[in-house]
Amino acid sequence: MKNCKKTIGMVVAMEKEILPLINELGSQVECFDVCGFTIKQFKKNGNDVYLINSGIGEISSSSATAILISVFKCNLIINFGVCGALTKNTGVLETVFVNGVVHYDFDLSPIDDVKVGQYPNYDSAIIKVENEVLTFAMKAYPYLKTVICASADKFLDDASIKQNLNNLYGAEICDMESAGILLVCNKANVPVLMIKAVSDGEGGAEEYNKMVKNAVEAYKAVTLKIIEAF
After folding, report:
1. 12, 36, 177, 222: least buried by Cβ within 10 Å?
2. What is the 3-state secondary structure (H, E, C) of the chain?
3. Do 149 and 79 meet the contact criterion of CB atoms below 8 Å apart?
């Protein structure tokens, strides 16, 4: 993996998720403005790294990912950020890899014989993440869990909804960007690695506001080591 040069695109929803990493990415080479998005270019271990602050939500994250792939020719996408826990099995500040995503507010079931969350051309509501980058990360960090992420344009602060998503899909975390990123990467046949740190559980919004800074620090070291490995 180290001998395979990559053009790495990094998709991050919020500036507060970027700041702890920005000084670790080396010297900034250039800054671009494309379709209202700011993209910063860095050199890291001989690789070009393009960092984009997508903004919150599936539409913003999918647009940002498409720009990294189509304009900057990124052949690896890394998404990192904070997430919510759906059950007590995944603790606050725990860092995890995502191996499957369900876009749970996508629903064609009234007109097609499919489950809620299932997209055309997919045989399940759970869109799997299957690539050599995730396999490498799992082997490098065997003590980190891989989980299914329930993703939609909603901040979940309702314990009953969280439990229902876990029951329906086996999802352990939730966020507002992963579905958009994964769908675009799959369409373009570009591997993606999603690294998440839990910022809130049963405490919901109050817990999120209190813990988000610590959660960002939790995934910082793992994210940097993965980038350096390439």
Report:
1. 36
2. CCCCCCEEEEEECCHHHHHHHHCCCCCEEEEEEECCEEEEEEEECCEEEEEEECCCCHHHHHHHHHHHHHCCCCCEEEEEEEEEECCCCCCCCCEEEEEEEEECCCCCCCCCCCCCCCCCCCCCCCEECCCHHHHHHHHHCCCCEEEEEEECCCCCCCHHHHHHHHHHHCCCEEECCHHHHHHHHHHHCCCEEEEEEEEECCCHHHHHHHHHHHHHHHHHHHHHHHHHHC
3. no
Lowest mean pLDDT among 100-109, 145-154, 218-227: 218-227
- In the predicted model, what is the mean pLDDT of residues 209-223? 67
pTM of the predicted structure, to 2 decimals: 0.90
CA distance 128 to 151: 13
Separation between Cα atoms, residue 182 and residue 224, nearest integer Å: 21
* Gap between the Cα atoms of 98 and 93, Å rounded: 15
pLDDT at 228: 77
Per residue in 5-61, pLDDT (tens digit) is 679 999 999 887 777 778 788 778 999 999 999 999 998 877 889 999 999 999 999
User: Which amino acid is located at 217 in the chain?
Assistant: E
Instruction: Label the pairing between strands 7-12 and 127-128.
Output: unpaired
